[in-house]
Amino acid sequence: MHIAIAGNIGSGKTTLTGLLAKHFGWHPHYEDVESNPYLHSFYEDMQRWSFNLQIYFLNSRFRQIIHIREGGKTVIQDRTIYEDAHIFAPNLHEMNLMTTRDYDNYRDLFDLMATFIQPPDLLIYLKASVPTLVKQIQKRGREYEESIRLDYLKSLNTRYEEWIATYKLGKLLIFNVDNIDMAENPEDLGMVIEKVNAELHGLF
What is the mean pLDDT of residues 1-15? Predict the structure, then answer.
């Protein structure tokens, strides 16, 4: 089984991935952040490195999905390949941080990859306001994220809402993380676990 967590930068995907993996005994697949050779450069000069970064993520997540499907284990994945294609890449293009030529090339590659993959059995979307995202980003203190622009986070949020509103690829759960703290409040985590369990296995 393949469970995936979607959400904007700082929404708590990595934290929830670890918590659910620990509770259910699932295998976590985290986003390739620490070893990503483009991430620091991207935040320093988005226009120069946007295409390189998105191609890197596309390749990384495509490999993850192939590995997940071939592994035969229940896996929980931190961010999906669909977010790159429906949110991050078009957002960069709209903000004139990726050229039309590069964006069209990217979309052609994604459309081809999409014919070889299956969507997750359950998608968990972590909805968060920009102030919550900023607070979480500051809390984890990644140096390269200090220069993230507020208009960038806001436009990503808008695209997430549009994508989730039309998501029809499989089961979907939405949690508003403005109102809950899964890392610090056991009751909040218990509520999430209960809803995930019910969605995957039914109430009884």
Answer: 94
Identify each DSSP E strand in 30-180 by its residue range.
75-78, 122-127, 171-176
The Cα 134–Cα 149 span in angstroms is 10
Between CA 115 and CA 33 the distance in angstroms is 26
pTM exceeding the 0.85 threshold for the entire prediction: yes
What the chain holds in terms of domains, given with CATH numbers, is 2-201 (3.40.50.300)
Active site residue 108: no
Strands (E), 51-191: 75-78, 122-127, 171-176
Smallest CA-to-CA distance from 98 within 88, 108, 109, 111 is with 88
Catalytic residue (one of 32, 78, 84, 108): 78
First to last CA, the chain: 19
Cα–Cα dist 41/37, whole Å? 8
pLDDT-above-70 percentage for the chain: 96
Q: Of the candidates 204, 182, 184, 178, which has an alpha carbon nearest to the alpha carbon of residue 193?
A: 182
**Number of C-beta neighbours around residue 67 at 10 A:** 12
The helix (run of H) or strand (run of E) holding residue 29 is strand 27-29
Q: How wide is the angle at C-alpha 62 spanned by C-alphas 57 and 68, nearest 5°?
A: 125
**Could you tell me which residues are beta bridge partners of residue 126?**
7, 175
